[in-house]
Q: What sequence folds into this?
């Protein structure tokens, strides 16, 4: 059967250290039993210690990658990650409108673990006005949610307010990642669904610096589950459980913020789930 295998697309930058970006996306999607294609919009020189440099791809190359994928593969869900600058965001938005790529998860990557900016400040407004209205799910961490909403987030109530503000910008479903910054001893994320329902997803805190690529992995897992036909709520819950497993069952790579263990399994899950 032509294109019978479930296929997804990541639209993001590379990570030469292998822990984040397109590399983390493809590893995650592979482990979640879907086939992943990629549109590389930026190339970074980085490792677990930080980002040394990056370069955005020319618009022509971005366009050609989208065209090559769309004319041959059947993409059932897509995600965006690092988008670098205004021209890149605009090129991605143009192609997302041109091709049917299924539900879209937007991970608004702005700053790397080591502090390097991966989205130019002038591109934030372009993301807000052009990309967010296309998102099925938006998955910002607290600093990203603060940048997008213009508010400080210091409490669980603030997370709820931020989620509503983001939904008011045109996003259907919002997942605000609290990490360990709001709830002591646990990682708490707030979800606001398109129908107005909301819930928290939590997991125990793991004391580790092996967290490089956490956001990429979560958004990729959500994308994979959406491609398999899961509901938004189920995809988010599975994503949270998978990321928790990849952190808890750590691997030893590099001298800094190490990568997750993408081989990790969700407890009680069958291999074909």
A:
């Amino acid at each position: 059967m032509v294109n019978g295998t479930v296929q997804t697309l990541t639209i993001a930058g590379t990570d030469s250290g292998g822990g984040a970006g397109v590399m983390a996306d493809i590893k995650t999607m592979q482990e979640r039993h879907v086939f992943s294609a990629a549109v590389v919009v930026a190339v970074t020189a980085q490792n677990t210690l930080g980002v040394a440099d990056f370069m955005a791809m020319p618009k022509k190359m971005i366009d050609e990658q989208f065209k090559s994928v769309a004319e041959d593969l059947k993409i059932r869900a897509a995600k965006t990650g690092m988008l670098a600058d205004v021209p890149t965001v605009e090129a991605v938005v143009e192609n997302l409108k041109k091709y049917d790529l299924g539900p879209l998860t937007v991970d608004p990557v702005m700053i790397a673990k080591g502090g390097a900016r991966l989205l130019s400040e002038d591109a934030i407004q372009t993301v807000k006005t052009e990309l967010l209205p296309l998102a099925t799910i938006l998955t910002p961490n607290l600093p990203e949610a603060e940048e997008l909403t213009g508010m400080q987030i210091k409490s669980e109530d603030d997370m709820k307010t931020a989620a509503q503000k983001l939904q008011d910008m045109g996003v259907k479903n919002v997942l605000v990642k609290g990490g360990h910054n709001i709830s002591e001893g646990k990682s708490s994320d707030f979800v606001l669904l398109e129908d107005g329902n909301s819930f928290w997803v939590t997991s125990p805190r793991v004391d580790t610096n092996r967290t490089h690529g956490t956001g990429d992995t979560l958004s990729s897992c959500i994308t994979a589950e959406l491609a398999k036909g899961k509901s938004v709520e189920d995809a988010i819950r599975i994503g949270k459980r998978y990321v928790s497993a990849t952190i808890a069952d750590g691997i030893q790579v590099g001298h800094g913020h190490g990568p997750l263990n993408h081989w990790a399994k969700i407890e009680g899950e069958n291999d074909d789930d």
About this structure: The beta strands are 7-13, 35-47, 50-56, 75-80, 104-106, 137-138, 173-177, 186-192, 198-204. The longest strand covers residues 35-47. The chain has one domain: 7-248.
